[in-house]
Amino acid sequence: MSLKELMWTRHRNPWSGWTRVLVGFAMGHALWLHDWIYLAITIVAVITNPFWFPAPKREDAWMTRAVDGERLWLGQADWLDKGVFFGPSAVMSLVLIWALYHQDPIWSALAGATVVIHKFLFLFFCVRFVANVNRLN
């Protein structure tokens, strides 16, 4: 099994997806505090997180289905589709980084909420995408 295959197999564990959400909040906290060691630890956590947990025992968890849909969609979508989905989130992520670094509570809250909502809308899309693919097969 390739490293990429291993990553996706283990990332399907719902604990992987949900802990990544928590690590994202920790990353924002580290940036707000200007604690570069804490920030570095959260970056390492985001990178290594898919390998922390074993493959899921069950296939029906919402986050497992979201990861399955994400993998399928990323394999099929062209650069324009990906840009439409990830472009706005990338822009708001830059705003969020700026706001957290400058400790601006209003912009941090607005940009943070926008990024989180966009991510969860994408995950909901992925769950529906994989359900449609499975229904057609």
Describe what this molecule looks like in 3D.
It contains 6 helices and no strands. It has one domain. Helix 2 crosses helix 5. The longest helix is centred in the C-terminal third of the chain and has 32 residues, at 105-136. The two termini are 25 Å apart. By secondary structure, the chain is an all-alpha fold. The chain has helices spanning 3-11, 14-33, 36-48, 62-76, 79-101, 105-136. Keywords: Membrane, Transmembrane, Transmembrane helix. The chain crosses the membrane at residues 36-55, 83-101, 107-131. InterPro entries: DUF6653 (IPR046595).
Keywords:
transmembrane; membrane; mainly alpha
Number of strand elements: 0
Question: Which secondary-structure class do the elements indicate?
Answer: mainly alpha
Q: Beta fraction of the residues?
A: under 5%
* Helix content percent band: over 70%
- Euclidean distance between termini CA atoms: 25 Å
> Looking at the structure, what is the overall shape?
globular
Mean pLDDT: 95
Biggest sheet features: none
Overall number of structural domains = 1
Contiguous helical run count? 6
Stretches where pLDDT is under 50 for at least 5 consecutive residues are none
Radius of gyration: 16 Å
Element order, helices and strands?
A: HHHHHH
